[in-house]
Amino acid sequence: MSVVLVINSGSSSLKYQLIEAEGGTTLATGLIERIGDANGGHAKHRDETTDAAAGTWEADVEVPDHSAAFDVMLDAFAGTGPSLEVNAPVAVGHRVVQGGARFFEPTVITDLVKINIDELAPLAPLHNPANLEGIEAAQRAFPDVPHVAVFDTAFHQTMPPAAYTYAIDRAVAAKHRVRRYGFHGTSHRYVSRAAAEYLGRPIEELRMIVLHLGNGASACAVSGGRSVETSMGMTPLEGLVMGTRSGDIDPAVLPYLQHRAGFDANGIDDLLNKRSGILGLGGHRDMRDLVAASQDGDDAATLALEVYTHRIRSYVGAYAAQLGRVDAIVFTAGVGENAALVREWSLGGLEGFGVEVDVEANRERGSGARRISTDASRVAVLVVPTNEELEIARQTLEVVEA
Ligand SMILES: Nc1ncnc2c1ncn2[C@@H]1O[C@H](COP(=O)(O)OP(=O)(O)O)[C@@H](O)[C@H]1O
Ligand SMILES: CC(=O)OP(=O)(O)O
Ligand SMILES: [Mg+2]
Predict the structure, then answer these.
(1) Which residues hold Mg(2+) (predicted)?
(2) Which atom of ligand 2 is nearest to the CA of 212?
(3) Ligand 1 in contact with 12 (CB < 6 A)?
(4) Please, what is the end-to-end C-alpha distance for the chain in angstroms?
(5) Which domains does the chain possess?
(6) CA–CA–CA angle 116, 119, 125 (5° rounding)
């Protein structure tokens, strides 16, 4: 059995899964939230090998930092199961968000790799420092197994220069590594392969648009299994409207707000990353709450939904033109997999482009991959659940076995 522990550490959270990577079986899942919060944090852990209530543990916990969160995770395994002795991980796989132009493959973590991840932190200030803390804590807890970094940016390293280059002064861009890197690559890669499998066609002959709509959201044009264009940029702020992030905005708004409204650089950063998106527009960062508010007649919530789906439609059109032909449009992640209304509004009115959503099929709830377009639709519209953790576990195992 090749068990891999997968760690996804965010700025204030630690998500983990214990996975039997060859069979793709999840043995345990967990989430520790509000790390570093003065009022304390919260932990949830599930032993997926049992249906019994005793397999679930949840509690308020003291977690000043990621190292403490790691101890909470280890205690949860010891107290609730499954046993980490019986299911000893052969490796630990880590989600690392920014790998720059340096990392285009999953990489065994050495001291030099950690220095590189640290150097890339200015290009993902919300994500990389947290990823590193998670790595340090995990290495202390599991000193005898290899640790592997799987980068969000890696899948997008196949983008052509025309897609990743910003039209600014070349010297400034080169000196400061300002270019599009793209994120959610692990998900875009997994989902595009799963979509090809569902369609029963070799991925080499498919052109598709993958819409990863979670808290963060990004679109990706995938041609022959390779990313050729994606909507997130140098950082995970560009592109689609997100839970709290603005996505695309006229860059001139930034100096304008600095001069006119007393924002400094940090204030702008905070505004665009944490107080914008559907939260800023509609007062809810969670899509479920936004849809409910809109259905209760809240006009601000409805406008937020309109802006959110209008932006998606714009990207679908742009990527269709870049690809020249579209075989499939694929929705994934929390919003993409669950919010029928978002899917309907995003692709409504595209019949002229061969995209015909089957309203009934779209509204039906389902769990696995499924088709939500009509039989007559030239473009297959699919919902395909993502599984970043399984993809990280598989890639980790591949590196370790090589
Ligand atoms: N049934 C649902 N209907 C609408 N939105 C949903 C539903 N379930 C989850 N979501 C949304 O999915 C988003 C979270 O997606 P997820 O992929 O889990 O994000 P992340 O991994 O970035 O934290 C939230 O906005 C949440 O409201
Ligand atoms: C890169 C990124 O935005 O990740 P997340 O959606 O997990 O915030
Ligand atoms: Mg996610």
Answers:
(1) 8, 388
(2) 6
(3) no
(4) 17
(5) 3-151 (3.30.420.40), 202-388 (3.30.420.40)
(6) 125
